[in-house]
């Protein structure tokens, strides 16, 4: 071994030894310093709810974050900010008036004292506000502040950065499960979400707990503009079994702040002329028609399967039919039927904005990686493995960038990872097409595939944000959930398309000279 290599090995060995030394010695030294310190951390957490209702006891517990055995006689003194005081490590107190109170805990040990404080909001009423309405974010925050002024405590459960109804449901369900104890005790829940994400999230919460009829005394106020969702809401009522679901439009929500008592709120809505309100309860809910598809749909939802899960299955025939029509009648070329179907489902799950960005980077990185690997003259399978590796790296970096820039919710990213990976696997399709037809032809086919996927996305109820307004056509989605038997119509449409013998729309443009000459 030459001197040069021995020097490099010695340098590496010394570096590794230094890293190990720092790794093991530094924590030990810090622990030694902590043990010899005469001033331990005496932080104490006040554990309680952040709100209390008038004349209802709230439990406050002192949770010392230090070794209490080192002190012989600790005393815990509470000042509730309303003139009352108490002693003990855990106390119960009832506030007589609404408002915000600063609760102060004083811990004493002989001549030494330490204090901690926590603000408690005492409300005349508590409610949950479930929402993912990004465009109404500021309005919702204003409503919550208005609630505080009216001494109404709102626990906000939001997923403002979710890009689709499907992922919004997942994010909201996770947050509701964390607030299960609070949500199961209140008597009013306000739901303002896209589609049925909020009601589905509540259903998911009930599946995670053992108690039955969690919402039997709960009134759910649902903000809904689309009257065609009546049957879907009734199905959710049968799942959740609440006291009632009050369906109103957004402008009438302000009335709740003037009359927070739910009975007075309903009476006020009924007394006002011109207000469109629907109250769904055990007396008004209708029974679905007896047919096989509706029976199965009702059975699945009653067993706790959210209809957003079922709708993905029911939408597959719609997506396939739209693709078949675009190919057979319009004459648009796509990468088969599987690729546009996967892209459409990815858009539905991730949202159009994130889905388009991801698709662009997947195609771009796949093309660049394939071009860079060409001089190496590798076999096809190892080359594609390297291309997929490159795509996974760019997806990894893209996710890191979106999290760093706070473009999307962290829980959205964690839930979206599976459709992201599925979309990444489409790289092989594009690379193979590029090898066969060249770059320009393959790009044209991918653009046409994207266009067909976009049309299918719109037909299946996807949201297109045009900045000035949102475009969403929910007719087919609601029709499938209200009357799933309509799926038979798509079978008949595909049989008709399978027998299509006429010219495609694009062929009229290609052969217009011949058609014009034949007419002459």
Task: Name the average pLDDT.
Answer: 78
Low-confidence blocks of residues: 1-6, 8-12, 23-41
Shape: globular
| Approximate helicity band | 40-55%
Order of strands in the sheet with most strands: 10-9-11-12-13-14
- Tally of DSSP β-strands: 16
Structural notes for this entry:
It is built from 20 helices and 16 strands. The chain is of the alpha/beta class. The chain has four domains: 39 residues; 80 residues, Immunoglobulins (Immunoglobulin-like), CATH 2.60.40.10; 176 residues, Rossmann fold, CATH 3.40.50; 202 residues, no CATH class. β15 and β16 form a beta hairpin.
Summarize the structure.
The protein folds into four domains: 39 residues; 80 residues, Immunoglobulins (Immunoglobulin-like); 176 residues, Rossmann fold; 202 residues, no CATH class.
Strand-helix topology:
Layout: H1 3-36, E1 44-47, E2 51-53, E3 58-64, E4 75-79, E5 85-87, E6 90-93, E7 99-109, E8 112-123, E9 125-131, H2 137-149, E10 152-158, H3 165-178, H4 180-183, E11 188-192, H5 197-207, E12 219-223, H6 230-240, E13 244-248, H7 254-258, H8 262-271, E14 278-280, H9 292-302, H10 307-330, H11 338-350, H12 352-373, H13 380-404, H14 410-424, H15 427-437, H16 439-459, E15 464-465, E16 470-471, H17 475-482, H18 487-498, H19 505-510, H20 512-519
Parallel strand pairs: 2-8, 9-10, 9-11, 11-12, 12-13
Antiparallel strand pairs: 1-3, 3-6, 4-5, 4-7, 7-8, 13-14, 15-16
């Amino acid at each position: 071994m030459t001197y040069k290599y021995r020097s490099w090995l010695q340098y590496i060995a010394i570096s590794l030894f230094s890293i190990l030394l720092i790794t093991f010695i530094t924590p030990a030294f810090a622990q030694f310093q902590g043990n010899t310190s005469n001033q331990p951390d005496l932080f104490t957490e006040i554990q309680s709810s952040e709100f209390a209702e008038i004349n209802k006891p709230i439990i406050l517990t002192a949770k010392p974050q230090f070794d209490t055995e080192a002190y012989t006689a600790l005393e815990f003194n509470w000042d509730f900010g309303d003139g009352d005081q108490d002693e003990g490590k855990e106390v119960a107190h009832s506030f007589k008036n609404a408002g915000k109170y600063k609760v102060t805990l004083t811990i004493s040990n002989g001549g030494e004292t330490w204090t901690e404080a926590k603000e408690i909001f005492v409300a005349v009423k508590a409610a949950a506000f479930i929402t993912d309405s990004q465009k109404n974010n500021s309005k919702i925050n204003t409503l919550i502040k208005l609630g505080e002024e009216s001494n109404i405590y709102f626990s906000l459960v939001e997923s403002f950065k979710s890009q689709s109804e499907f992922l919004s449901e997942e994010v909201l369900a996770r947050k509701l499960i964390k607030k299960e104890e609070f949500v199961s005790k209140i008597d009013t829940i306000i739901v303002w979400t896209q589609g049925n994400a909020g009601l589905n999230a509540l259903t998911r919460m009930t599946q995670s707990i053992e108690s039955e009829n969690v919402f039997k005394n709960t009134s759910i106020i649902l903000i809904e503009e689309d009257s065609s969702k009546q049957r879907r809401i009734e199905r959710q009522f049968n799942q959740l079994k609440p006291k009632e679901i009050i369906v109103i439009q957004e402008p009438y929500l302000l009335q709740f702040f003037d009359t927070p008592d739910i009975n007075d709120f309903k009476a006020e809505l009924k007394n006002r002329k011109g207000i469109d309100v629907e109250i769904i309860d055990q007396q008004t809910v209708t029974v679905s028609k007896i047919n096989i598809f509706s029976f199965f749909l009702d059975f699945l939802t009653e067993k706790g399967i959210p209809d957003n899960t079922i709708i993905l299955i029911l939408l597959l025939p719609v997506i396939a039919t739209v693709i078949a029509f675009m190919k057979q009648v319009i004459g648009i070329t796509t990468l088969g039927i599987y690729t546009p179907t996967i892209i459409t489902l990815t858009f539905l799950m991730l949202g159009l904005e994130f889905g388009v960005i991801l698709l662009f980077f997947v195609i771009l990185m796949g093309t660049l990686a394939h071009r860079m690997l060409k001089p190496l003259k590798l076999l096809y399978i190892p080359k594609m493995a390297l291309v997929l590796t490159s795509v996974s790296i760019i997806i990894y970096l893209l996710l890191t960038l979106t999290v760093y820039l706070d473009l999307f919710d962290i829980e959205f990213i964690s839930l979206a990872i599976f459709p992201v990976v599925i979309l990444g696997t489409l790289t092989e399709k594009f690379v193979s097409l590029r090898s066969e037809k060249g770059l320009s032809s393959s790009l044209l086919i991918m653009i046409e595939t994207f266009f067909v996927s976009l049309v299918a996305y719109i037909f299946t109820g996807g949201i297109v944000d045009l900045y000035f307004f949102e475009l969403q056509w929910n007719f087919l989605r609601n029709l499938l959930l209200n009357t799933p038997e309509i799926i038979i119509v798509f079978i008949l449409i595909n049989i008709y398309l399978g027998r299509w013998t006429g010219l495609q729309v694009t062929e009229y443009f290609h052969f217009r000279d011949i058609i014009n000459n034949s007419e002459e």
